[in-house]
Amino acid sequence: MKKQSFIQGTLILLAAGIINRMLGFIPRIALPRIIGAEGVGLYQLAYPFFLVLVTVITGGIPLAIAKMVAEAEGENRPEKSRLILRTGLALSVGLAIFFTLVAMISASWVSNVILTDHRVYYTFIAMIPMIGIVAVSAIYRGYFQGKQNMIPSALSSIFESLVRIFFMLWFSWLLLPKGIAMAAAGAMLGVTVGEIGGMLAILWQYYVITKKDKKQTNPTPEQPVLESEVIPSDPDGVKANIPILRCLLGISIPVTASRLVGSFSYLLESIITVRSLALAGIATAAATAQYGSLQGMVIPLLLLPGALTSSLAVSLVPSISEAAARKDLPTIHKRMHQALRLALVTGAPFAVLMYILAVPLCNLLYGNADTAPMLKLMAPFALFIYVQAPLQAALQAMDRPGRALINTLIGAVVKIILIVILASQPEYGIYGAIIAIIVNSILVTLLHGYSVVSLISLSLRVTETVKTLCAMLIMGAGVHYVYTSIPIADVQWIQFLFASAIGMVLYFGISLLAGLISLRDLDRLPFIKRRF
């Protein structure tokens, strides 16, 4: 099985991430038009519970598998890699079965007692089958990432997106005559079908790649693989008889705890936001609609450029784990500088476009500009979100998940407190929740950054940040001028695309002149290297 470099793996995941984000906006655009903001709100209210359950089951296990498999492959022990995979599958599937039963039993109580809208029940029931499906898919993705082959994860995620989009929109449309609650449940059921498609895709690729590897290896009878070789002696002095399961739990539990903080924070955010809006005098249906607009329309749009940072985070874990095992600090510094520069430089122009062109963007995507003020308020702070993912991945790769957990916990507590204080005030309303989310993003990113800098004595390149901010200001002025003062068509989407294209060209040119992007970076791109 072919192993990719850090940059190649990132580019593969980036391509898949961009495709998935683009595909993901099809239901984001179409679903509000089918079931409305209130229906999207019902869908979004159920989703945080799913994230909590999946985080418990798969939160840290795939990352632990990726880390352990990367180390095993570095020792050239493929049998140990397969044992790690089987152990992770057994653990994850066992947890999935247990929590599926728990979710089925508690569905009615959650919908009627914890949440403010009993109509969420049908959506909650529709999501339960996903728990086991996601558990299996996540384990295989972690396995392939550990072998530094990102193609199976990329292809399966794209296939999952295609299947999900079709069935999500189809089921919600079919069930709409039965009411908004059933339509929202239909959308969630479509997501379940998509997850099934993604799982089958990655299982098929595992079968094909494993069969191919066996043909290439074909060990002779004189050189059998001994069972004693499956679990090697650890070079750091860990006893050879420590079970794989114990190692897996040792890595995954702190990571799971860290991610649980984020998932529980999201869950509490959904519950407390709607209840706080009710205290502010907003009716239940209107509060559900406002929350649906924020979480179902604005946040996904804001996270669209995060395709790169997510790819960087996934690729960083095995890359930094290998370097850390060799105590190769220069390589760790190099990888971190690459990741932070890419996250900052590539995310910046999108933040500018979402701020300057918030109104036409929301008009084009959602058919109205009601969500534009929310997007405009959050867009300038999106850079903190984009930089946060690689910083957290670095802490996990260097065996500091506990530090990431504390940072995330601090941010979550501050966010929940601010939501309670601000969103319950009539003068703030939903914007109180937005301010809380912004403060959380800034605080957690700064804490992660401080932790990484302290851990590896990383020198931050402040000049790159200053250059990026200057490029953003120039681009923003250019986009605003082009959109408002150089009309080329009466059609809004043409004017929007023209202004965006001019802004991107302007930003790209400034980045080249300022040294934020180099010709060497462009040479790494396969298409450009091949053509030019």
Q: Which terms summarize this structure?
A:
single chain; 532 residues; mainly alpha; 82% helix; disordered C terminus
Outline the biggest β-sheet.
Answer: none
Tell me the Rg in angstroms.
Answer: 24 Å
User: Helical percent range?
Assistant: over 70%
What global shape is seen?
Answer: globular
SS field, number of helical segments: 20
How many strand units? 0
How much strand content do the residues show?
Answer: under 5%
User: Roughly what is the average pLDDT, rounded to an integer?
Assistant: 80
Distance between the termini: 29 Å
Structural class: mainly alpha
Order of helices and strands: HHHHHHHHHHHHHHHHHHHH
Stretches with pLDDT under 50, minimum 5 residues:
220-241, 524-532
Would you give an account of this structure?
The protein is an all-alpha fold. It has 20 helices and no strands. The protein has helices at 6-58, 61-74, 78-114, 120-127, 130-146, 151-175, 180-217, 244-279, 284-303, 306-325, 329-356, 358-366, 372-378, 382-397, 401-423, 430-456, 462-485, 492-514, 519-523, 526-531. Helix 4 runs parallel beside helix 7 (180-217) and helix 5 runs parallel beside helix 7. The longest helix is centred in the N-terminal third of the chain and has 53 residues, at 6-58. It is globular and about 65 Å long. It starts with 5 loop residues before the first helix and ends with a helix. The relative contact order is 0.11.
